[in-house]
Specification:
This protein is of the alpha/beta class. The chain contains 16 helices and 13 strands. Strands 1-7-6-5-4-2-3 form a seven-stranded mixed sheet, sandwiched between helices. Strands 10-11-13-12 form a four-stranded antiparallel sheet, covered by helices on one side. α3 packs parallel to α10. It is globular, with a radius of gyration of 23 Å. The chain binds pyridoxal-5'-phosphate (PLP). The site of pyridoxal-5'-phosphate has 14 residues, from α4.
Length: 488
């Protein structure tokens, strides 16, 4: 089937459409191999079956109006109740089901902004986040006109520096943020100190448990030394926890929770200033599919605590094995002491990005992370259930990849000098105009193609100032998201 250039004049037979779908997906990340440490949180065949059946059954129902579909209201209240019990919240804790961590965070920031406006008459609102906080806080700030003040981390533990947060508080500060855990290094911030500080200053404290919130209570039960991070900590006023990550539900599922309903009301949006139906939205979306909600309810009901304990136990053991295995590879080290199934590792001896390319050749997907704010460039693994049986194979290929990179030796001085010179020009006034040519040279083409080896690209990115990196990324996606007529 050719690339679409318009709505096809004639419809295709169903079978041909489904065949086309399968054909089009053939270059997607092969996550079913269990070798992808990213993107898909794979709960296995049965979980997928349950999720798909529930998703399909409620795909067409509309979450726009909770009185029209009491089923969806029930699912949401049940999920919020499960989430708050999981995060030590009492009956006064309330929340909302959202489409994902980003929406949960945008809503928490909106709530903080509107709370500060209402209760303190604030006009310019600021929030304080450690450099390890998820990019979604910056997105929220950009969307909502809230200034996001970043503070440093301890370069050894990778945890938030609470003294720096304290020093950054001013009369515009509405909220402090801590992560449990952060994404990059899987490390839990000193939540008790951050929340205590917020409480003392009479401001809000959000704990980003998008990725760790579901897992950490289980690891605690297994005896892991996880500091308190949830509603049991005085001063915590809101939390986000994704279900579409470690609760293994289909994408489009997260919750945002608040210490009480007075606070949550700042999140809601009602509008009577138009001629149509009476509108009140709890979240950003208005018309929304019941699919993700019903599927989340179904998966959590199907697995139950017992089912999750089994899965989390496997993750816990795999995380410990992989962490110890990485620490045992000469030349590599783990950044901080991850409490979560997320590990950032790097090297002071060999370039780190080529290891990701070597691993890719061996069928593994791991993520490069650029240097920022006291976090050196590194590689990241998100260990998810289908990786668990492959921990030993992963480590043995990682050892081989490190050896391969070591054998190749350090990049020669000329290449480094050239990259630096290019980075300098890109950062200068003619930089923006150079970007299209640069993307051509990098092999980043239309129709979603990126080169197989990314080490040089990542190394160059790593040299660029942040605003230039961001401009470059925008150019990349502009290019990817452009329909082109392909002549075959
Ligand atoms: C994934 C993640 C988010 C954002 O969640 P999305 O579901 O991708 O929007 C926020 N915070 C942390 C710590 C995360 O890992």
């Amino acid at each position: 089937m050719s690339n679409a250039t318009a709505i096809p004049a004639h419809g295709l037979p169903k079978e041909q459409v489904f065949a086309a779908l399968e054909d089009i997906r053939k270059n997607d990340v092969p996550w079913r191999t269990g070798r992808a440490f990213a993107y898909v949180y794979d709960g296995g065949k049965e979980v997928e079956e349950v999720a798909k059946r529930a998703f399909n059954a409620f795909m067409t129902e509309n979450g726009l109006d909770p009185t029209a579909f009491p089923s969806l209201l029930r699912f949401e209240n049940d999920l919020v109740a499960m989430a708050r019990a999981h995060l030590s919240g009492g009956p006064e804790v309330v929340g909302s089901f959202t489409s994902g961590g980003t929406e949960s965070i945008i809503l928490a920031v909106k709530t903080a902004r509107d709370w500060a406006r209402k209760t303190r008459g604030a006009t310019d609102v600021e929030i304080i986040v450690p450099v390890t906080a998820h990019a979604a806080f910056h997105k929220a700030g950009a969307y909502l006109g809230v200034k996001v003040v970043t503070t440093p981390i301890d370069p050894v533990t990778m945890r938030a520096d609470v003294a720096a947060m304290k020093a950054a508080i001013n009369e515009r500060t509405a909220m402090l943020v801590g992560s449990a855990s952060g994404y990059a290094h899987g490390v839990v911030d000193p939540i008790a100190e951050i929340a205590g500080l917020a409480k003392e200053r009479g401001i809000l404290c959000h704990v980003d448990g998008c990725i760790g919130g579901f897992v950490l209570p289980y690891f605690k039960r297994f005896g892991a030394d996880v500091p308190a991070f949830d509603f049991s900590v005085p001063g915590v006023t809101s939390m986000s926890m994704d279900l579409h990550k470690y609760a293994l539900t289909p994408k489009g599922a997260s919750v945002v929770l608040y210490a009480n309903d007075d606070l949550r009301r700042h999140q809601f949006f009602a509008c009577a200033s138009w001629t149509g139906y009476t509108m009140v939205n709890t979240t950003i979306q208005s018309t929304k599919s019941g699919g993700p909600l019903a599927a989340a309810w179904a998966v959590m009901s199907f697995l139950g605590d017992e089912g999750y304990v089994k899965i989390m136990r496997g993750l816990y053991d795999a995380k410990n094995a992989i962490e110890a295995g990485i620490r045992a590879i000469p030349g590599l080290y783990v950044m901080g002491k991850p409490e979560m199934t997320l590990i950032g590792f790097t090297s002071d001896e060999i370039p780190i990005f080529p290891i990701a390319d070597e691993m890719k050749k061996r069928g593994w997907l791991i993520q490069p992370q650029l240097a920022y704010g006291g976090s050196k460039e590194n590689l990241h693994v998100t260990i998810q259930p289908s990786n668990v049986p492959h921990a030993e194979a992963f480590l043995s290929d990682l050892r081989a990849s490190v050896e391969a990179v070591r054998k190749k030796g350090a990049p020669d001085g000329d290449a480094i000098a050239m990259a630096r010179a290019l980075a300098e020009r890109l950062s200068g006034p003619e930089g923006e105009a150079m970007l299209p040519g640069l993307l051509d040279a990098m092999g980043i083409g239309s129709s979603g193609t990126v080169p197989a080896e990314m080490a040089d690209t990542n190394a160059l990115m790593n040299l660029l100032p942040r605003p230039v990196q961001e401009r470059l990324l925008v150019h990349v996606v502009s290019r990817l998201f452009t329909p082109r007529e392909v002549t075959k």
